[in-house]
Amino acid sequence: MSNDGLANALLQACQRRGIMLATAESCTGGMIIAALTDIAGSSAVVDRGFVTYSNEAKMEMLGVSAATLEAHGAVSRETALEMAEGALVHSRAGLTLAVTGVAGPGGGSAEKPVGLVWFGVALAGRPVVAEHRLFAGNGRAFIRSETVRHALELGLHALGEDQALAP
Predict the structure, then answer these.
(1) How many domains, in total, are found in the chain?
(2) Angle of helix 140-158 relative to helix 3-17, nearest 10 degrees?
(3) Which CATH number goes with the domain that contains 123?
(4) 45-82 pLDDT tens trace
């Protein structure tokens, strides 16, 4: 399914459940919220998108702790979890999607290579979850596009809409 199809399926799933959606984005710079708001009628379920590219923005807008950033870095499980939780706390959303990663072409390291992205998903009333993916070898645009795709898939999964992901 295309990113447009995934975005539409996620909006419909949120609408059926009567919940709002928000994003907390770093490496995608707002691409996830853009994919959602490109669809007419998205205002029925999209609350807001936090673009928190800098560590300062992560702390100020989402409440990510300085201690977390210092101990684990911006691209980490811990930061993704705090971003997703912070977006839930600082919005009217019942579902939040957070991403933080190394889109490249520079900025990678042995521990955090270009293409490493951490995802956080918060659904009100459930524990926040995080996972990572490595989208390597195809450049910045590919990494960012695949990050959008996977974030949308995670949102559908969180809402129990896995059948929407079937080919």
Answers:
(1) 1
(2) 30
(3) 3.90.950.20
(4) 999 999 999 999 999 999 999 999 999 999 999 999 99
Structural tokens at position 114: 């270009």
The boundaries of the domain holding residue 106 are 3-165
Q: Tell me the helices (H) and strands (E) count for the chain, helix number first.
A: 6, 5
Question: 3-class DSSP state for residue 9?
Answer: helix
> For residues 101 and 115, what is the distance between their CA atoms, to the nearest angstrom?
7
Residue with tokens 């989402």: 62
Three-state SS string over 120-151 comes to EEEECCCCCEEEEEECCCCCHHHHHHHHHHHH
73-127 per-position pLDDT tens digit? 999 999 999 999 999 999 999 999 999 999 999 999 999 999 999 999 999 999 9
Q: How many residues would you count in the chain?
A: 167
Whole-number Å distance between alpha carbons of 124 and 133 = 24
Identify the CA nearest to 134 among candidates 110, 156, 98. Answer: 110
The distance from CA 151 to its chain's CA centroid, rounded to whole angstroms, is 5
